[in-house]
Here is the input.
Amino acid sequence: MTRSVGLALLGAALVAAGLAGCSGSANNTSTGGDAGTLVIGVDNGSPTLQDNFNPFSANKRIGTTYMYEPLEFVNAVDGRETPFLATGHTLRGSGEVDFTIRTGVHWSDGKPFTPADVVFTFNYLKKFPALDSLGIWQHVRSVTASGDTVAVRFTAPDVPFTQQVEQEVIVPEHVWSTIADPTTYTNTAPVVTGPYTLGSFNPNQYTLTRNTKYWQADKVAAATLVFPALSGNQQSQLELSRGGYDWATLFIPNVGQTWVGKNAKDNHYWFPPGGTISLFLNLTKAPYDNPTFRQALSYALDRKDIANKAEDGYVQPASQSGMLLPNLKSWLDPSLPDSGVIGQDLTKATQLFGQAGYTMRGGALVGPNGQQVTMTVQTPNGFTDWLQAAQTLQQQIKSVGIAVTIQTPEYAAYNQAMQNGSFDASIASFGGTGSPYLDFFNTLASSQTAPVGQTAASNFSRFNDPALDGLLRQMQGETQVAQQQGTVHQLEQVMYQQVPVITLFYGATWGEYSTKKLTGWPDASNPYAPPAPYGAPPLMIVTHLTGA
Amino acid sequence: MHPAVRKLIMFVATLWAAVTVNFFIPRLMPGTPADAALAKLAGNGPISPAQKQAIEDTLGVPHTGLASQYWHYLDDAAHGRFGISYTYFPEPVTSLIRTALPWTLVLVGSATVLAFVVGTLAGVLAAWRRGRVIDAVSTVGSTFTSAFPYFWTALLLLFVFAFKLNWFPIKGGYQAAASPNWSASFVADAAFHSVLPALTILVSGLGGWLLGMRNNMVNTLGEDYVTFAEANGLRGRTIALRYAARNALLPNITAFGMALGLVVGGSLLTEVVFAYPGVGYLLYNSVVNEDFPLMQALFLVITISVLVANLIVDLLYGLLDPRSRRARSAV
Here is the structure.
């Protein structure tokens, strides 16, 4: 009896397998071999997809960003702007910026796009602060239209904030004005100005189709974009490896073999820096409150080794200037040696530790209190590359006599410790906005921090330096690039000499793409956008691709 | 007091305790749901303070005291109001569970029943033929398979049959371009997608049932009434199934009741490995993302179904085991 049940089972499995053999559908996620169809591996299902195309929602489908457009695109690689719904902007002093709104643009339902839509969108964010993820109304006093011009007035001189205003996506007044609660609205039939409109939606996959009314429709080569639901890194890596995606954003080990090696002619990758992975120290605690100690710690690290072990050799050691290199090299202070990248120098480290009052005794670094220096480094659970960095760092500073313990709490607990200041040291990332001002402001401005026990907005190391705050304030009023550069150089000097954050290496923006169907992807020689299939870069990329 | 009434009172008390624990445990976790929402975004680069503020405003994370939250929670739970999920914002919790539950019930339910039936019968056979080749093979084999971690079996099946041999799909409950419906092609596709996950549950579950049944059976076979039946010249098959197995089955039935109750919770690791759109995956996501409304609703559903399954087994026991019937009338 047992045997017959077993056979029946086996039979059922075989029949099922046979069915699959006929349909041949086991692994096919694309909708066809059409050269104009791109399969994009970026949207994570959990495990299926929720139908949400609300551009203001944190849970929106990633495809939403292929449909709505901002006033201008800001390239996070180098901060350069490309106009979209505005044709350009002019500064009126340091307290107002005037955008010239593009004419002849239509919404995908045929209605004309007007400056009134722009004004409506900004005021909508004021009415519903939950939608204001760029924090527009913390800096802006009023937004008004006159003819083709929209004037944005700041509450105080705030030139660098222009770049945030530019990035706000614009929605149609005739659709959104009637929505009662835009925070829970799922916008399943988006009316847009962008290159694509929503094609079909299924819980496992959705498609976007070319917007025939797009104002630069002649520049859009791919007729259809397919977004299959991803689930877990392993499955996505296997799928990429066997050619299931034309464009993806995955950390994949040994990319030369697992991706390029499969088809060296068409498979390419570009992993430009997208943020600075650093060791954030709690500056309210001894010995981290001592700048000399921090400098010494910085000299004890072999950043090249950390970068190679953490990211498989894909990324470079970071400059202590705080500048994301090579992206922001035009802002770099030329007086900094080696572009500000600090190499390991144990003699110098020991000497600086000595100056700070710490000496080596029997293999242990002993402080003024007679105790060995210990450090607890936290990194979020599941961030395996950061953990690898922490472990390499642990080995390296063991040699200068500091005992390091690594903790891997869940992200929520990790983040809470950062915000409340209840940590010694954290592996964390900063920067990557393309704007040196914003990178410094978020990471080091005293307005962005809070006493230990209270929630800090983004200055988690709790750096507090009136001189730095003064430089940032000064930069808000500067309208000329030459002036701004001078100030940024001074900010870099603060970062380099006081070491409020110890930079480690540049975290990459992962971008794997195939030139089999379309060419014109961004790369190191033509960095017009980061290669990310999420956020704002897709608008640039889909309007740059051409037939292969 | 009638034992059934006593059992019902116990049931209600346990339910209240479970519901209360269910409320407090998630709130002991560090961090807030907004942190978890940020964790997802952190993968794409640093997050600005404004983004964080916007997310907190959107989720409307509760700021009232625990006592008032608890009272509202009891009230809502009694009325089946579970609110909006944080993870899948703005989708209501009830609609998420309603979508996921059928997948789990069919996959895990049928695999559990199958594992129980096959395992128990194999256990009977192994015990009846104890010491022979079939006993050695099945006992050693199931000790081996039940020692495999669940997810390891899942990963192994995934790697061999889905990736290397390409026989089965790598993930999901159905084909990418399809939407769930009742057409024959969709059902066939869904069945095909469920083969590997079902096999995982079967392989990991089978051994336990087999070993349990075999050991009970071996004990029962040593009883006097079995020897008596043999001496009377009854057929071997009759003795094995009608005398020994019926008595040996009772502990397995209890365990089966519990297993059926747990079916609702899904097979977490299997569903995660295969990205199966069931309750297990939902539960995993709700915990990882500190999705209080979803977590509470799921734990509540699981708790209630385990308790109900237990109650039913308890009540059934009287029917199945004459000894417990006698014990009851003596009370």
Summary: The two ends of chain B are 9 Å apart (CA to CA). The CA atoms of residues 140 and 207 of chain B lie 9 Å apart. Chain B has a mean pLDDT of 81.
